[in-house]
Design goal:
With about 190 residues, this protein is mostly beta strands. The chain has no helices and 16 strands.
Length: about 190
């Protein structure tokens, strides 16, 4: 097993970003139905092992509250396709994401749009789901194996990462614009006020 130690605050004010209706990719299978995974966009023919992922609902990671999706649903990941996601309006210090990416590391740009019309560009770097982190991400979920259509594949430890970005707390957020980058996925998103 792996122990990761990091400094973090507790009891932060978290405003969960509603991703219902945004989930568009199935990246999970279960031991009793490997064949259910029929789409190629996520990791080739690979998937997260659903029985090892957290159940749906509120989860607190490093002091930040997230709404973890239902991994048994038909889509649990938001593939970044250039879409805009509405944000709970307010002033916040940070944007926190649970994210993963497959088929190589990704370096993209997120944009936070404020109600005054200004836009903040955020450099969004993420390590491939099955290798050692390279950009300071914190692995929140690390499975001991991944699935493929024919069963369990014990060649890697697929991960979901926590990444956080500073926002301008003097402004009110309106929306998050995602990059147009297939195989880059958001699992959950939260805005944090300290």
């Amino acid at each position: 097993f792996t122990i990761i130690v990091t400094e973090f605050a507790t009891d932060l004010e978290s405003a969960i970003v509603d991703l219902d209706g945004e989930y568009n990719v199935d990246g999970v299978t279960f031991q009793d139905d490997f064949e259910a995974f029929g789409q190629d966009g996520f990791g080739g023919r690979f998937a997260f092992p659903g029985e090892l992922l957290p159940p749906p609902g509120l989860k607190n990671y490093l002091g930040v509250e997230f709404e973890f999706p239902d991994v048994a649903s038909s889509a649990q990941l938001v593939e970044t396709r250039g879409q805009s996601v509405g944000l709970p309006q307010g002033s916040y210090d940070r944007l926190a994401l649970l994210a993963t990416t497959v088929n190589s590391d990704k370096s993209e740009t997120l944009a936070v749009v404020y109600t005054d019309g200004s836009t903040q560009q955020i450099e969004f770097n993420l390590t491939d789901w099955c290798v050692q982190t390279k950009f300071g991400e914190v692995p929140i979920v690390r499975a001991p194996h991944r699935h493929m259509s024919t069963g369990v594949l014990r060649d890697a430890n697929p991960q979901i990462f926590l990444v956080q970005y500073e926002l301008d707390p003097t402004k009110t957020v309106r929306e998050l614009r995602l990059p147009n980058r297939p195989t880059l996925y958001i699992v959950a998103a939260t805005l944090v006020a300290e």
